[in-house]
Design goal:
single chain; about 300 residues; alpha/beta; Rossmann fold; eight-stranded mixed β-sheet; two-stranded antiparallel ribbon
Length: about 300
Amino acid sequence: MFHLVKAYFRFLLHSTNQHGVHSPFVYGLVTRCFYDRRKYASYALLKEYRRSLLKDKRAIKVKDFGAGSKVFTSEVRKLSKMAKTAGISPKRARLLNRLVRYLEADTAMELGTSLGLGTAAMAAGNKIKVTTIEGCPQTALIASEKFKEFRLRNIQLMVGKFQELLVENGKWKEGSGERKEEKNSKFKIPNSNSTKNSQLTTDNSKPTTDNRQPTTHNSELRTQNNDLIYVDGNHQKEATLSYFEKLLPTVHNDSVMIFDDIHWSKGMEEAWEEIKAHPKVKVSIDTFQWGLVFFRREQEKEHFVIRV
């Protein structure tokens, strides 16, 4: 906690708003996306999605493959508390929703589904196909229930360790995804209809989205270019750098990678510095909670610290 407080004060000393930005691309991003105060219809769905988790009294056993939690001391965790303390905040969820829309992203990859709050933020009201990976089967089961409950049909959820599903060239491990589910149940989402105490509902009064049905298949996944990559899983230096390197071949000139909790620890700050310094990264933005990197070859390399 002391590290985060120190890091936040450093961030405040160096941060600026749109008035300190001279890059036309970043200025437009900040003024028309970061600081967009319009109330989009998708926000109602995100609010209801969060509210349904906050009211959920169930507890699950969480298998954590990352750096652990600074909030929870036990593997058994209440869904309501997970949604309140460990998920993406409402403000960040709305920002992520706007980013997808502003950047006109068609495909997204997420490492670390958790309860699906961030996944829903990308999918709600946007014409995007989201592939998301969660390591904990029980957590993934809850996310799967919620995606169905809120009719978020443009999400493909995969269960497994990140390093087992991704290989060195940014491609998917042979046989992962749909065909892998037939052979190995650890990559399969449990059947929520047969799960004890499942509270899946299909109340037609819920906010809806007209997103398209997912059609992604194995061969597409292994060669897919990603418009947006959201890394919110293992908050450790080595793991973060590994994901960056493995996913780098799947980005293009207009892609963005978003890394969560870049000031979580000294190791995460070191990972963020290495990512910023990578020769393919042209624009980097530190918003304290997130680090965003762009690969626009037409731009000079530049770093920004922006308050959102």
